[in-house]
Amino acid sequence: MTVRKHYASGEPCWADLQTRDVAAAKDFYGKVFGWTYKDLPTPDGRSYAQAFVKDQLVAVIAPQNSLQEAAGTNGQWNVYIAATDTEEIAEDSVHAGGKLQFGPETVADTGVLAFVEPPGGGTTGIWQAGTHLGSHLFNEPGALAWAELLTPEPQAAVAFFQQLFGYEVTEYPQDDGGNYSTLMVIDDEVAGIVPAGEGEEAAWQIYYGVSDLRRAAEAAVAAGGEMLVEPEEIPEAGSLATIQDPQGGVLSLIQV
């Protein structure tokens, strides 16, 4: 197990879950990943939970805001990309044809946060690390392992993120005539951009690692979740599945 001490600009570094029932989500993901938790207070008097694998921080489960609760919004996993200057990325996001949804906001001494949206949609967190660098583990069981944006405007999204982070891009032609694009930092593929299906809205598909895919997927169903994509072996990508937790949060699993 390798503990991360740094994320380069442009690397996905963190993921968290916003949900209407933090306690139920803790129970569910604890059964899937074996996470342990530390509960901390929110400014409005509620609580959120830090999730750990062997004492290494890998996620946060947080309550939804009042607007999400009132709208009955499903649980939502968010992904964050590391940045050296969140304010600059936020400004550039508008010039690159996207939208600035939130921030930049300094979060105590932990870092600086913003949410941006590329053309075509897909809320994307931007994180400039302070005391919180991101997930202490990456591509390990129970930790963030990959993220890909499904979007109806893949070419525009690729150009947007290239302008923000200077990514190199590799294109993989698909059988349907489209491309699977990977964003690269120092010759490493760090994230994907995929054409969304007809009628699908843009969204990030976030992958967490597991040591035994079938066992983790079965644990999710036994804990009250739903299997959206059955475990399958994909030659180029490995063993994958997609689950939905009881509050509607969707997360993909990848065997690592």
How big a fraction of the residues is strand? over 45%
Outline the biggest β-sheet: 8 strands, mixed
Structural class, by secondary structure, is alpha+beta
Distance between the termini: 12 Å
Quantity of strands, as a count: 16
Query: Low-confidence stretches at least 5 residues in length (pLDDT < 50)?
Result: none
Specify the number of helices: 5
Radius of gyration (CA) equals 17 Å
In which range does the helix fraction lie?
A: 10-25%
Provide a concise account of the structure shown.
The chain is of the alpha+beta class and 256 residues long. It is built from five helices and 16 strands. Helix 1 (22-33) packs antiparallel against helix 5 (213-222).
